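W.,

You were right to be curious about this one. When I first looked at the sequence I had no strong expectations either way, so I just let the prediction run and decided to look at it fresh. Below is the sequence, 99 residues in total, followed by the output.
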Amino acid sequence: MKKILIGNLLFAGIVFAHTPVMYCFDNGDNTVTCEGGFSDGSSAQGVKFTVKQGDKIVADGKLSAESEFTFKKPAGDYTAQFDAGKGHIVEISSSKISE
């Protein structure tokens, strides 16, 4: 009986697992907005967000109550990163962000 209970608990963790998702778009006014969330519909409010150029952080903060972060578009190439912890990190390069 104990093995069955442990197996069910492990399976339940897999069923309710969620994957981080993020979409970024150029607002056309020299700003970019990124929206984050999870595949199960969970909010990403308060999740760490960073914009980097190489190793330099050019903007950072946390996702808003609407799970969004808007930042001034850096000149040149950059990467937007949604970081909800180990195994829950999404990065989008500037070349993948369009108006």
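Here's what jumped out at me. The chain is about 15% helix and 45% strand. And, maybe more interesting for your project: The first strand starts at residue 20 and ends at 26.

Coffee later to discuss?

I.
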